[in-house]
């Protein structure tokens, strides 16, 4: 596993097809190592005759976005089983789109464990599940409910032809070795590269008392203050939500030549939508206002999702390139746009539209989210449409949207997967 989201593949584990397509071909890797006279040390490392460290591997160019950044004294292994089978603490820096599959694989190695490890997830993406009821699935839930895939064989006999046929069957076994109590979420407001450079930063670790308090104390440094909170799932969802609107912020900045006024108008509109959405997710949304706005602010300033939106609007990237970008990793805001749009489009979550005086799906109260979905997912509109959305004369005052949320009983506990309303980790 990786120690940071951007550097997850520095450990040499198997990459997804998306990452593999953006990486150099195997022959090119071998040629580069031979030119650098570095091939032999990897052979020795694989034979166990030599210990390889992260700084060596980074210098050899195996990490796409942290060149010349030493991670020593981390020991680097090239096998997933070797990395995790007896680990006490595992850091998940995988994109949400890969978390379920990889932890299903890891579950095979943990089947014989007596004590479950502690997992700290850095992942900010989410998924939407619409059956049987609309709800959000977060990376920590994916890890806790990951399924181990095993393949068995059974023999079937056809009495008509008197022949036995051996058939391979996939068997899915629910993997519950790691209870949700052992899984934590570490989020912002911060930028990873600035933490590495020892710039002052804050973070928040969320989960049960047993692990979050000692881990918060363990992680705390003079330049890195770590708060702790019991509300795991909600903070995780908020971490995914801010990435949605960060992409639009990057577009607005690029299209208006960094106009401070346009960016502030967008910020007012998008945060009012985010606050509206938190009223659907949380019974007491006011307590999330500070952390949510702070995390959103820093992501809009310098996060990879804002960078992605900026590059799209400038034409330096295209949607056809996908959401896995060389040197940046996975842009998780793209899949989050789709997930939140699908979730909030469900009629079963309908809310009252105060002006139309009729029930509508919650997404109808979020025009920025709708526009981002048409740009990024449906690909019906150009990036310039984000400016039309914020300049729409029919757009209501952001304050009015917040008052709508406060004036209605919007809370839907089932969205976070707990029909009884018990949404805390």
UniProtKB/TrEMBL annotation:
Coiled coil: none annotated. GO terms for biological process: carbohydrate metabolic process; glycerol-3-phosphate metabolic process. GO terms for molecular function: glycerol-3-phosphate dehydrogenase [NAD(P)+] activity. InterPro entries: 6-PGluconate_DH-like_C_sf, 6PGD_dom2, G3P_DH_NAD-dep_C, NAD(P)-bd_dom_sf. Residues 1-20 are annotated as: Disordered. This is Glycerol-3-phosphate dehydrogenase NAD-dependent C-terminal domain-containing protein. GO terms for cellular component: cytosol. Residues 231-384 form the Glycerol-3-phosphate dehydrogenase NAD-dependent C-terminal domain. Pfam families: NAD_Gly3P_dh_C.
